[in-house]
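Follow-up to my earlier ticket, as requested here are the two runs.
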Amino acid sequence: MELNVSSRSHEDHAIVIATGEIDLYTAPRLHSELAAVIANCAPGYRVIVDMSGVEFCDSTGMNVLLTCLRQAREHGGELELAAPRPAVRKILQVTGLDSVFTIDPDPAGLPGM
């Protein structure tokens, strides 16, 4: 399965929408999109990754999210995850990353949606 990634900017945040599977082959696409959004952010900017359309995410994908979280924080911003599906949420819990990321379980809670 493929990964589709799109983004849109708002006043104080950007939403990056990922749909499909994040694995060894598709993770570079997510990384390049997130890195571009983060590079163009002002300090205090929030990058929200809408995970509601992600059906699978392996360790490579988690590594990309962690790397981008670090980059966002280095730029004075924040990277948050929104609406991960149960399979992805379980990976976040098992790895302990649910305590590293800010996670909003409700996609309706996304600003600008």
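Run two:
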Amino acid sequence: MKTNSEFILREIAGEAVLIPTGSASQNLNGMIRLTETGVFIWKQVDTAADLEEITSRIISEFEVDEETARRDVRGFLYELYIRGLVTDIPEFEQKISETKN
């Protein structure tokens, strides 16, 4: 897994946002606001081995049960994945291949 390097995480006026740069700025006019949990997940993508590792880290960091953490991590990252903000997530690549067939 990895984040798209054309999106930069910044804090602006106390809000965490992803700002598109380079060619990404031509496809997205604006910024993406992230919650505290979204920022945490974004920061895990480049260092975690898989979605389960991010889920485990969420459980350790926040007061959330495993089922909710798993659902939230998968849902959030899937939205970023289909929009090109994160790449190389085998679970999602397989899911998309199956829906195309």
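The only thing I checked on run two: Residues 66-82 form the longest helix (17 residues). Let me know what else you need.
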